[in-house]
């Protein structure tokens, strides 16, 4: 493995009974790369993403993070390696404030004093100052997504896996989320599964396109998004065309 490759998936296959959701997908990511996984509904991108995070154990193939073979390791074991995962499953404690939620997440990795500093930094970065004392349970969807992201970032992961971070956000919130994710790639390697092509266009440096469980194209975002085969698989699909 090249020194600067921090994530490598080798011939990953994931079968569910008779369904082959991922059919031999390989991918390499460099440190601080920001990679979007896209593709039509049912293409296999979420399943592949879950193999990277440890939520699923691939039927075949391997996942290598920072030189360590991790296929088969549990989510919390992968998390302990400095990998953070934002799923669409709510993780906040509704009865605690935004500040308290972030503080508890930061404490997992920092001393009390450092956790305080980390929370202040995150509140500024995520634009949450006006809501710091609000209960998480009282937040609107977009604010909540920012706090969910804050919980993920509180441990200062080197690899961040984001499942549809723009899902359900307003246009302004999508723009803010795009800025935050781009900034994040200055200090971490980031993999994003996303349907919102405006968001993908705004953030992606490199893109991997799934189609029928296989990788149809990958590489430079501009090149891949203008690839005729990629445009063809999106035509008529509900999530828009990568034009
Ligand atoms: N737990 C499961 N059991 C059986 N089949 C599954 C399971 N998870 C996914 N699949 C199937 O695997 C295929 C790929 O699904 P996957 O969710 O990975 O696609 P996707 O590209 O993420 O789609 P979407 O954009 O709709 O989320 C689909 O045919 C899906 O029905």
Structural class: alpha/beta
Q: Strand order of the main beta sheet, please?
A: 6-7-8-3-9-10
The overall average pLDDT, rounded, is: 92
Outline the low-pLDDT stretches.
none
- Distance N to C terminus: 34 Å
Tally of DSSP helical segments: 9
Instruction: Please state roughly what percent of the residues sit in beta strands, choosing from under 5%, 5-15%, 15-25%, 25-35%, 35-45% or over 45%.
Output: 25-35%
The ligands found in this model are: adenosine-5'-triphosphate
Protein name: ABC transporter related
InterPro entries: AAA+_ATPase (IPR003593), ABC_AA/LPS_Transport (IPR051120), ABC_transporter-like_ATP-bd (IPR003439), ABC_transporter-like_CS (IPR017871), BCA_ABC_TP_C (IPR032823), P-loop_NTPase (IPR027417)
Keywords: ATP-binding, Cell membrane, Membrane, Nucleotide-binding, Transport
Pfam family, one: BCA_ABC_TP_C
């Amino acid at each position: 493995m090249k020194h600067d490759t921090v994530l490598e998936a080798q011939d990953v296959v994931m079968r569910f009974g008779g369904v082959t959701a991922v059919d031999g997908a390989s991918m390499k990511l460099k440190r601080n790369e920001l990679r979007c996984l896209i593709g039509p509904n049912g293409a296999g991108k979420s399943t592949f993403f879950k193999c990277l995070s440890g939520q699923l154990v691939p039927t075949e193939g391997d996942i290598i993070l920072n030189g360590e073979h991790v296929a088969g390791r549990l989510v919390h074991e992968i998390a302990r390696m400095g990998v953070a995962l934002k799923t669409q499953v709510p993780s906040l404690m509704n009865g605690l404030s935004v500040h308290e939620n972030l503080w508890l997440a930061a404490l997992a990795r920092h001393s009390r004093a450092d956790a305080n500093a980390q929370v202040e930094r995150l509140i500024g970065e995520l634009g949450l100052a006006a809501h710091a004392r609000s209960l998480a349970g009282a937040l609107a969807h977009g604010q909540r997504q920012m706090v969910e992201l804050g919980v993920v970032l509180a441990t200062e992961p080197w690899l961040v896996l984001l499942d549809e971070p723009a899902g359900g956000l307003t246009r302004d919130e999508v723009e803010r989320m795009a800025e935050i994710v781009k900034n994040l790639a200055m200090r971490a390697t980031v993999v994003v599964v996303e349907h919102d092509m405006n968001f993908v266009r705004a953030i992606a440096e490199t893109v991997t396109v799934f189609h029928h469980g296989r990788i149809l194209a990958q590489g430079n975002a501009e090149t891949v998004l203008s690839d005729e085969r990629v445009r063809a698989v999106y035509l008529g699909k509900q999530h828009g065309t990568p034009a």
